[in-house]
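Most newcomers find our protein records easier to grasp once they have seen one. Read left to right, the backbone structure tokens trace the chain's path through space. Nothing more is needed to start thinking about how sequence determines fold. An example says more than a description, so a record of this kind follows:
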Amino acid sequence: MPRYIEIDEERLSKLHDGLELMEMLDRETMRSLDLHIYGVTNNPQILDAAREAIAESEELAEEDVQVAEVAVAIPISADTIYALLGSGIRLSREDFTYMGAGGEGVRTMSFTFAHYKATVNIGYFSKVALASSESWLDDFLRKEGTNKPAQVTPAVHRTQEATQPGVPPPAIPKQTSEKLSRFLDAFLN
């Protein structure tokens, strides 16, 4: 059984009609199916929200995170598909994956961490698939994405003043040992 199947806008519209009929019969059973739409995107609005979520979770400045593309997992219902085919849905708690740098592989994150809630419709995705859960989103990105890694570079915080190459750093006064010796003298007396 495949983990996910590619789907186009026409088939998604037909899926909407089928889900709508099935939800009329038993909405609770349809929720338990846990169906998701996967989509790969490089839309600037979606990438901004992803960048913000990554920066927030890593406690970095947003400028320190560069993401080329993400894959998004959207739980679906007839209403969600209708919105995706129309004006779009606001990404708030949905998961997304991005390619990590330096051997990290695919990383999974949630748009929950982003303050900016981007709106997405089906036209924002270069590849779309239907899946039985959000579990295979990393595999989908690996196979359908460009595999371009994200750049996450935290700002450098120096503990010493910078020096010219070849010049030794200035000596740090041994204030800690003087304070310690005064404390010990006072304690022992």
